[in-house]
Amino acid sequence: MERAITTMWDHYSEPLSLDEIADTAVLSKFYFSRVFRNVTGTSPGRFLTAIRLYSAKNLLLETSLSVTDIAYQVGYNSLGTFTTRFTRSVGASPTRFRSLSHSGLPQLPRFETGADSRTGTVHGTVVLPPTSTPLRVYVGAFSSPIVEGMPVSCDILESPSDACRVLAYRLSAVPIGEWYVRAAAVAVHWADVDPRPWARHPLLVGAGKPVVMRADHDVELRIPMRTVDTTDLPILLALPELDNLHLPDAQPTSRQAPEFAAI
């Protein structure tokens, strides 16, 4: 699976077929698809799409290429299809995503339980491995294993020191249905954050089991965090590339990027 995923990253701009990807894993395409989904939580096709859109995010930030050129460079033959998929997955159009790297992101709201009784709550703890880096942890409920689009509910946690390894989170107003709870941790102190937005990556990721929400239910879910590996899906939200440096102890330097509002 790692060899197949490496092939996707190395050749995402090409019209890769399922047969070609499966061949790198020396498996039939049918068996490969089943094993791939078990390992990654999604299909090879959706994983490849996520790689292409993630690469497009980086090109929008790192280069001055036009949106059209970027669309073709990441493997799309239609600008309209690329723009639609990018906007749906990232939460902003390609042009707006690029402009937000200068003006900052609107703050992601913390959702509160509303009057609608057809929702429930997911709560629990995020367990961090030992680290001396102050972290911000984003926890959200998504409709698929891919972290894309806006979460239906989210929480933002702060881990100021190594002593704070277990953090409590709460996701309110989660609608009825099946949801995937995902977490990503990023460095927040100015000295630990790369000033180049395209070079910022989550330090840790975590996932809980799929949650089937029923009305008025309160589900407890523990999320162990770990370092990112090859089989992890790239995060398509405008995070952490545009994650903020807007902290009380932030100290501007010549290398520091502009301040961004937390997504």
**Strand residue content:** 15-25%
- SS elements, strand count: 9
Provide the helix percentage.
Answer: 25-40%
What is the mean predicted local confidence, pLDDT?
A: 82
> Can you tell me the CATH class of the largest domain?
Mainly Beta
Task: Classify the secondary structure makeup into a structural class.
Answer: alpha+beta
Which spans of ≥5 residues are poorly predicted at pLDDT below 50?
A: 109-115, 245-263
* Molecular shape: globular
Quaternary organisation of the protein chains: single chain
Q: Could you explain the architecture of this structure?
A:
The chain is α+β, with helices and mostly antiparallel strands. The chain folds into two domains: 102 residues, Homeodomain-like (Arc Repressor Mutant, subunit A, Orthogonal Bundle); 158 residues, Immunoglobulin-like (Sandwich). Helix content is 29%, strand content 22%. The protein is built from seven helices and nine strands. Strands 1, 2, 3, 4, 5, 6, 7, 8 and 9 form a nine-stranded mixed beta sheet that branches. Helix 4 packs across helix 7. It starts with a helix and ends in a 37-residue tail after the last strand. The C terminus is likely disordered.
